[in-house]
Amino acid sequence: MASVARRAGAVAIDWLISWIIAAFINMFTNALGDTATLTLLVWVVIGIIGGWLFARTPGMAVLRLGVARVDVAGARVGLWRAAVRTLLTMFVLPAAMVDVDGRGMHDRGTGTAVIRA
């Protein structure tokens, strides 16, 4: 299981990547909102696609973390779990509240866990 500090570091890396992409997009258009709004949207897209296709986001990959299902060993996380997990993480509180196993409430709700890979 990954520590809270490592998971927070992965989110910070993902946020920095999202901010850079959003700032680049805003250089050419502001039709999608300002940089702060677009940063959040890019972060959500990265979280959902990364969790769904790769079972990790870029920040998790840098810190050698991954997302795994706890109910079926070796099964893929899947689109709906990745989407719900990312959207709950966006609200911070479910991710910050951890149980005795070190899993956030967003992981508990989606049947996943962040592991050291």
Automatic annotation (TrEMBL):
Annotated Pfam families: RDD (PF06271)
Membrane topology annotation: Multi-pass membrane protein
Transmembrane domains' residue ranges: 12-29, 35-55
Keywords recorded for this protein, A-Z: Membrane, Transmembrane, Transmembrane helix
Subcellular location(s) per record: Membrane
Coiled-coil stretches noted in the UniProt entry, renumbered to this chain: none
Domain RDD: 2-93
InterPro entries: RDD, UCP021697
Name the record gives this protein: Membrane protein
Source species of the chain: Corynebacterium doosanense CAU 212 = DSM 45436
Organism lineage: Bacteria, Bacillati, Actinomycetota, Actinomycetes, Mycobacteriales
